[in-house]
């Protein structure tokens, strides 16, 4: 597993810290992200062995994921580091496309952004 070239964005960094803090697998972190959970609030959901009525965090995430998506875990498990690398590649591709664009392309994009759809020429 290689590290991404640049720094990891703060939103993804919070998930890396939560994964390390709660000793979750990459699949559990991805499931929690897809469920829309907050990485800073996972501690209140986690069972600290003092609360026997609570389900352990991985089991709780799996049960919610199964209930919402109908499967035990995501089919392609992608790590946070891989997601950060893909995000940086997309940003670099957009930046390269923007630098290679002609002035006419920029002008047309600006016009289409400012003109309401009903007034654009067809």
Explain this structure.
The protein has 122 residues and is mainly alpha-helical. Helix content is 60%, strand content 0%. The protein contains 6 helices and no strands. The model has no long low-confidence stretch (mean pLDDT 86).
Write the layout of secondary structure elements.
Layout: H1 10-22, H2 26-35, H3 42-45, H4 57-69, H5 80-100, H6 103-114
Helix pairs in contact: 2-4
Low-confidence stretches: none
- The H/E string reads HHHHHH
Number of strands: 0
Mean pLDDT: 86
Number of helices: 6
Shape: elongated
Strand % is under 5%
Number of domains: 1
The structure class reads mainly alpha
Helix content: 55-70%
The biggest beta sheet reads:
none
Oligomer: single chain
List keywords for this structure.
6 helices; 122 residues; mainly alpha; single chain
Short structural summary:
By secondary structure, the protein is mostly helical.
